[in-house]
Each structure stands twice: as C-alpha cells, then as structure tokens.
Task: structure prediction
Amino acid sequence: MVVALLAVVHVGLAAVWLGSMLYSLMIVQPRAARVLGGDDDRLEEFLTVVGWGAAVQGRRGRRRGTSRGRGPLPRLPGPTTRR
Result:
C-alpha cells in the first residue's frame, strides 16, 4: 500500500514538473522573446527572474518587477492581460 502511494505521488510530481517545463518552453519563452524583441540581455534577465521566482528578486532589495533600474519588465500578452 505504501509503495503504491509513493509511486502515485512520484508520478504525479513528475507530471507537474514535465507540464511546467513544457509550458515554459512552448508558451512563456516564445512570448517573452517576441515581446522583448532582439534584446538578448533583457530576455536572459527576464527568464532568470521567472525561473527564480519574483519573491527571490524582492528579497535582494530591488523592487519587484524591475530590471536593473531600466523600468518595469513588460507584461506578456495573454488572455488575462488588459491592453
């Protein structure tokens, strides 16, 4: 019984991890590249912030959602983004 429960938990966590990786690779990264244009430095910085999470950036003493004093990072277009 315990082995079966651990197997279900393991498979469930693997599915969540795989789903989040695919979402990042198929949705987030292409949209970020399109929004930021050809600025590879800002794209790398944005994807690093997304990878670490916004809370980490807030703990480093910088304002959340800002990029080295160059203003806020752009919002990615999506169904919940108001234009």
Observations:
- Residues 22 and 28 are 9 Å apart (CA to CA).
